[in-house]
Design a protein that fits this description.
- The protein is an alpha+beta fold.
- The chain folds into 2 domains: 191 residues, no CATH class; 133 residues, no CATH class.
- Helix 6 packs antiparallel against helix 7.
- The radius of gyration is 25 Å and the shape is globular.
Length: 336
């Protein structure tokens, strides 16, 4: 990590003032190492890539321009950090947006996707954590409660990579305080997703999940919904590329469901026939968010793993005439 500037941003709605440091900070080696881990670990776990958009009125992007200046001349980091701080302040107009420390840093030789890149990082700390400070004195240890930044949790941050400069750079972002979903990505950074294999995989699996809930479950019940989800996940996990015709033959199968899926697909702005490379890391993340719970009005819930045979072979639905109620029968060898 090269130069770093540390400021504090206020909330413009509440007329809070910014604190602007007089220059970049000279940090001890141990603190630099701790901050490096604090900044980069959560950011580098993000799969989604973004690119800067240009403002419709000005034709520019404040954060993109600031990062570009630092990439050209890293000694301008402090001056650009003040511009970034003021831009962030001007977007802090929602009453729920918290004030906090803002770290702007220049990084050299960062490994992202097995590629060595330079980067500009912008990180905001919003929540403070209480911790106990233990000190010696006399015959007893003294305990004091202090407030500080939790180095295990990054509230907001982005890493602007100097790759794809001709396509408005590539940006990684994390936002763990989603009180205003427009604030960080849209108002401050003004970025849009790069429609690569991660984006395509994630979005189509989200489409499958929504279709299973809004169409399959209503038409055929929860058990069939679980089967559809499991089959969809299996398809993505077993293939390197997505082909709609193949997906249609293997997963949709019958004509009425295929017709409804096409109508549903149009509402989600997906073309009817297209293909893309499948990102397996995106599959792993998306499958965790896909519905796998059957909740019953009798207070019982059935949770299934995302495996086709679980819904197909080990779960049966029926109707008990005596009780006048539906039932599920579950098969298993032993309790775990």
């Amino acid at each position: 990590m090269g130069a770093i500037a540390i400021h504090r941003v206020g909330n413009k709605h509440r007329a809070e003032r910014n604190f602007i440091a007089e220059g970049t900070s000279d940090l001890e080696v141990e603190i630099r190492a701790a901050l490096l881990s604090f900044f980069l670990k959560p950011i580098k776990r993000e799969d989604q890539r973004y690119r800067f958009e240009l403002d419709e009125r000005s034709g520019a992007n404040a954060i993109r321009n600031a990062a570009a200046e630092v990439f050209i001349d890293p000694t301008t980091l402090y001056d650009q950090s003040v511009i970034i701080l003021n831009h962030l302040y001007n977007q802090s107009t929602h009453p729920n947006i918290k004030s906090g420390e803002v770290f702007i840093a220049h990084f050299t030789d960062v490994i992202v996707d097995d590629e060595l890149v330079n980067a500009v990082g912008i990180f905001k700390s919003e929540r403070k954590s209480e911790f106990l400070k233990v000190s010696g004195g006399g015959t007893h240890l003294k305990l004091n409660i202090q407030d500080g930044i939790n180095l295990g949790r990054l509230d907001k941050g982005c890493l602007i990579l100097d790759s794809a400069a001709g396509d408005n750079y590539r940006v990684l972002s994390v936002d763990n305080n989603n009180y205003d979903t427009e604030y960080w990505l849209r108002s401050f950074l003004l970025v849009e997703p790069v429609k690569d294999e991660v984006y395509q995989t994630k979005n189509f699996m989200e489409l499958c999940n929504a279709f299973s809930t809004e169409v399959v479950a209503k038409d055929a019940g929860k058990g069939e919904q679980m089967k559809f989800i499991a089959d969809s996940v299996d398809y993505f996990a077993a293939n390197e590329s997505f082909d709609f015709n193949k997906f249609k033959e293997e997963i949709l199968q019958d004509e009425p469901r295929e017709r409804k899926f096409k109508q549903f697909q149009e509402a989600y702005d997906f073309p009817e026939n297209y293909s893309f490379e499948i990102s397996q890391p995106a599959v792993s993340k998306a499958r965790k968010k896909m519905s796998n719970l059957i909740a019953l009005d009798s207070g019982i819930q059935i949770k299934l793993d995302h495996a086709s045979e679980a819904a197909q072979s080990y779960l049966e639905k029926g109707f008990d005439e005596d009780k006048g109620m539906h039932f599920y029968k579950v098969y298993f060898n032993e309790e775990l």
